[in-house]
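This section describes the prediction task in plain terms. A model, or a person checking by hand, is given the sequence of a single protein chain and must write out its three-dimensional structure as a string of tokens. No templates, partner chains or ligands are provided. The sample shown here is typical of the held-out split.
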Amino acid sequence: MITNTQLVVKRFFDLTLACLLLPILILPILILVTVATIDIWKYGMFTQTRVGQNAKFFKIYKIRTLREGTHELGHLDNKATQFGRFLRKTKLDELPQLFNVIKGDMSFVGPRPDIPGFADKLEGDDRVILKVKPGVTGSATLKYKNEEEILKQQLDPETYNRTVIWVDKVKINKYYVQNYSFCLDLKLILKSTLINDN
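The expected answer:
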């Protein structure tokens, strides 16, 4: 089980890496936000409420990829512009989460931050997941990197997400917290970088 000391070391690593990456990524982020603004004719960065550490809500930063209107689970890509689909596929729409890491809302590695109605409703031993900050990447994120494609193939994406994908994510994230090590974080960061480069 992850200890309080490990949480402190994890936070120190996150803040150090984020400060090193900020001068490198700030210009690309500004460019992508500007292009997204022109592409959708609405400010290219937006915030959304997510569930964080200890079930506290926070605002996650993302680059806008979807047109205006109702967006059904499993059909988000249909509402994305061509540029938006590129951002979603390459995960570049998540670059602004670097600011979430700096603020302390998120970690580079951990369970992905869910919308209200999932992580905040965890019960019993499953709530151990809330001991850590949500992550930009993680074991469950890597396994379900094509989650939108999987949901597109389901007759009832909402039910499939809640009864199959979410249940599996909880198991994966519990294992991460219960078997945490700094080396594991480094491995997941490296694996995420290699996947995004392919």
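For orientation: The chain has a mean pLDDT of 91.
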